[in-house]
Amino acid sequence: MGWENVRVKDEYQDLVDEISALLGAPATLENRDFRLIAFGAHDSDSEGGELVLDPVRTRSILTRQSTSAVRSWFEGFGIARATGPVRIPAAPDAGVFRGRICLPVRYRGIVQGYVWLLDQEGPDAAAAGPGPRELAAAMEVAQRIGVLLAQEAKAGADLSREFLAVLTAGRGWQQDMAVAALRLALGAGGEGPHTVVCVSPWVGELPQSVPGAAAVCVVPAQDQEAGGRLAALVRMRGTDAMAPALTALGRLLPRATEPTGAVQVATPGGSRTAKPATAPSGSAPPVGAAAGSRAGGMNAGVSDPVRALAELPAAWAQATAAARAATAQPRLGPVAQWSRIGPYRMLAALPAGPADDPAARTLLGPAHRELARTAEVFLDCAGQAGRAAAALGVHRQTLYYRLGKVEQLTGLDLDEGEDRLLLHMALKASRLHH
Which residues in 56-68 are b (16+ Cβ under 10 Å) and which e? Predict the structure, then answer.
């Protein structure tokens, strides 16, 4: 499987180089999701020999993807419907300092991707650029690219179907057959460690491709769950190297993120890593309140690596639990690894449904959110009143007063370890169901 991927990528590169030679300009190839597949060599554009590229092309080459705003802007010129070359003028305000020629890559009438060339500059750009004969020859090469992309898309669709079957099949012979079919579809790539990634909620189309992912599918929503969940199967270099999974997530979420809380922030000159200051344990939204929206409303979870494909359903359970934990506790997300979500590993395995312990029922009502938050922070701080008061920003006497009210509402004694455990579990479980 790996050798086949290398061979196909080499074919794409050869065809892009052929178009570059035909038109006398460096070309880039992107799939229909605007993810870079191959690009030709760029010659110097300036007298001093420096390479001059506009921000859009620079980002495409360096990050292998374009922003949604850039995608919408280009699609506004009808490139998804076009059957021939489309000339797109420069737009400096959008970071497009050079005009483009877009060659739609189609197969049986369906767009599979786009070949992009920088157009000539100046008022006579159309006359100075490639003529109809050269463009027609380039479109013939683009058709050959379309065949390759369609074949790759079909192989990806087959893998998606088999991967989904493994994640949703019942126990016993049904799961055994699904695993066998996925192993056959993966070929040699089925051997070695994998991890499973969950992005939730997922609304919209399945991505045409996700770099680093062996298979991608959308698991339908269950019960009253909003949207489905996207699952990605990622090959690992080893059982302790999570970089491939995190890279795949960077392609799926609107912002590339890291579990540590560092966020890749896009800037006109590239990107920078902004690492927020560590928030106190009491800074989470109140229990029962919305956790807020990050990464476009999506959160993600990453399972521990597994070596056998038969272990993928268990890995999927870990990934979904981690995604739920990231939603419930913002400091864990927007990307959470199952190995790092602490008590949520056990709480997420409990039967679905809101926490309904009689002792905590009243406290978890909307009228007592501040008391519930006080109790959670106090328990998060291991019952240390000084730490809890500092995290909440209140005087220690205020904390004691609130805790007394908590004991009255629940009938629990916060000096007793088991009562503390019961209340702490109820508060954390409540987060998973809001």
Answer: bbebbeebebbbe
* Cα 242 versus chain centre, distance: 14
Tell the residue number behind the tokens 């196909």, with chain if given. Answer: 8
∠ at Cα 331 (326, 336), nearest 5°?
Answer: 40
Nearest one of 183, 331, 318 to 257, comparing CA atoms: 331
Average pLDDT score over residue span 319-340: 88
Q: Can you give the pLDDT at residue 273?
A: 35
pLDDT at 256 over 50: no
Strand (E) or helix (H) holding 375: helix 369-380
Task: Pull the structure tokens for residue 340.
Answer: 């790092």
The predicted model gives 210-225 an average pLDDT of 77
Residue 87 parent element (H or E): strand 86-88
Task: Find out whether 403 and 374 touch, Cβ atoms under 8 Å.
Answer: yes
Torsion region of 64: left, alpha or beta (phi above 0 gives left; psi -120 to 50 gives alpha): left
Token pair for 117: 């060339």
Whether residue 309 contacts residue 179, with contact meaning beta carbons closer than 8 Å, is answered with yes
- Provide the residue count of the chain: 434
CB distance 257 to 249 below 8 Å:
yes
